[in-house]
Specification:
186 residues; two-stranded parallel sheet; globular
């Protein structure tokens, strides 16, 4: 089996600049319910990140089948306590393959967690109650057990990504559920 180490890393940027967008607009409707991803301001776009850190976990791809596996190995820039990028503004200088998520690429990234706000809005769904924009609390994602906090290891401490596979992206399964230790049978 041939493996391609596919980082599939994406930086998390919620409130990195310390600015929150105006959550409501017309008749009190939150921006994420009335705007498409492509129509959001940069501040609105960045605020959609719930800070789970799951997108910053390495993925590997089976070059023969194209199957993607999710690991518990985080990008070296991910702060494992806060689940935030340690150098968000300069992340691409340090990690050239950090995925730049855009409205155009969101639907093609099938490895984004089913709970990801970008994915949800792209699919016409609403945010979960624990999302910081809904709850008003940036730690609500961690209390809900949705984040990588306590479940990831830095890539600085890993030699073999294959030893850290948590789940395979199969149709109908979500590797980002609390019980991620499923092994793939071949």
């Amino acid at each position: 089996m041939a493996w391609n180490a596919h980082a599939g890393r994406m930086a998390t940027g919620l409130h990195e600049a310390g600015q929150m967008p105006n959550r409501t607009g017309r008749a009190g409707t939150p921006f994420w319910r009335r705007k498409r991803l492509a129509d959001m301001t940069p501040a609105e776009w960045e605020s959609l990140c719930d800070g789970c850190g799951l997108c910053c976990l390495h993925k590997i791809m089976d070059e023969d089948s194209g199957d993607i596996a999710v690991t518990d190995v985080a990008c070296r820039l991910l702060d494992l306590d806060t689940c935030r990028c340690g150098d968000y503004a300069n992340r691409r200088r340090h990690v050239p393959d950090c995925v730049h998520l855009t409205a155009a690429t969101t639907s093609r990234l099938n490895w984004l967690p089913s709970t990801c706000a970008y994915r949800l809005i792209d699919q016409g769904q609403d945010l979960f109650p624990w999302h910081p924009l809904v709850s008003g609390d940036p730690d609500s994602v961690h209390r809900a057990g949705i984040s990588a906090r306590g479940a990831a290891i830095s890539e600085d401490h890993v030699d073999d990504l294959e030893e850290h596979v948590q789940a395979w992206l199969d149709i109908g399964t979500d590797p980002f559920t609390p019980h991620r230790k499923r092994k793939r049978s071949r």
